[in-house]
Design brief:
The protein is mainly β. The protein has three domains: 9-115, Structural Genomics Hypothetical 15.5 Kd Protein In mrcA-pckA Intergenic Region, Chain A (Roll); 120-173, OB fold (Dihydrolipoamide Acetyltransferase, E2P) (Beta Barrel); 180-228, SH3 type barrels. It has helices at 46-53, 60-68; strands at residues 9-11, 29-31, 43-45, 73-74, 77-78, 85-87, 91-94, 99-106, 109-115, 122-132, 138-142, 147-150, 159-163, 169-173, 180-183, 192-199, 208-213, 216-221, 225-228. The strands form five sheets. Strands 5-4-7-8-9 form a five-stranded antiparallel sheet, with no helix packed on it. The chain has a five-stranded antiparallel sheet with strand order 12-11-10-13-14, with no helix packed on it. The protein has a five-stranded antiparallel sheet with strand order 18-17-16-15-19, with no helix packed on it. A hairpin with a 4-residue loop joins strand 11 (138-142) and strand 12. Helix 1 (46-53) crosses helix 2. The longest helix has 9 residues, at 60-68. The chain is globular and about 55 Å long.
């Protein structure tokens, strides 16, 4: 009988570095994040996050106990599965620890940045698509799989700051020269820099961006930028 679907298991040493799994020899297997919010190579399963990233569990059994007891909340909702996908900009709350985190980047690694309770009330979401639906309404697609009805002032590549947990638009950050950006892919992953210029390349070449940061000026692809503000 032929095999259907992808594997539910992941050899730990082959796990994506982006997901923040650094210790690769303690256990053979790592959990595969369930499909949905984030791409497989750009997210970490809840059980792996608790055990390997935060160190709150010594094994998967303990991680399951934490999840089953309701002590892992992501974007305002209790997580019920150890394979739940946690990715960039997700807001994580640990009631037992009374700690809040925003998933950010440290170099090429996804990592939990501790934040205040007040900061946890907002989430940064990158606009990855726009569609016109019935009655001419504009549907905005965000990087974590969410959608909402917006308008033509919101462009692909912009950032929408949404309230948590009700997810209403708080502010809109345009992708334009002068803004501060987090680089999410490429050689400069994890760096924050100021967008100086958007460079349109002729033909089929992808649009690039010139930025300036602590290490000086550099050029990367425009699609690698995630607009943030001074509160990030």
């Amino acid at each position: 009988m032929s095999k259907k679907g992808g594997s539910h298991h992941l050899v730990r040493i082959c796990a994506s570095k982006y997901a923040g799994v650094r210790q690769r020899k303690g256990y053979k297997w790592a959990l595969v994040p369930m499909p949905g919010k984030h791409k497989k190579g750009e997210s970490v399963a809840a059980g792996t996050f608790l055990r390997d990233v935060l160190g709150l569990a010594s094994n998967l059994k303990e991680a399951k106990k934490i999840v089953n007891s309701g002590n892992l909340v992501v974007d305002g909702k209790k997580v019920k599965d150890v394979k739940f996908s946690i990715g960039l900009m997700d807001i994580v709350y640990l009631p037992a620890e009374k700690k809040y985190y925003r998933m950010s980047l440290s170099g090429r690694y996804l990592y939990p940045k501790e934040i205040s309770a007040e900061e946890s009330k907002q989430k940064y979401l990158k606009v990855v698509g726009k569609t016109t639906i019935k009655k001419g309404k504009i549907q905005i697609a965000l990087h974590d799989g969410r959608t909402f009805l917006g308008d033509n002032n919101i462009k692909r590549g912009d950032t929408c700051v949404m309230s948590v947990p009700d997810f209403k638009l708080v502010s809109h950050l345009k992708l334009q020269p002068g803004v501060r950006c987090l680089i999410t892919h490429g050689r400069h992953t994890g760096q924050t820099a100021k967008l100086e210029q958007i460079i349109q390349r002729p033909g089929s070449h992808e649009t690039e961006a010139m930025l300036s940061g602590p290490s000086g000026q550099f050029i990367t692809l425009l699609k690698y930028l995630f607009v943030i503000d001074d509160k990030f």
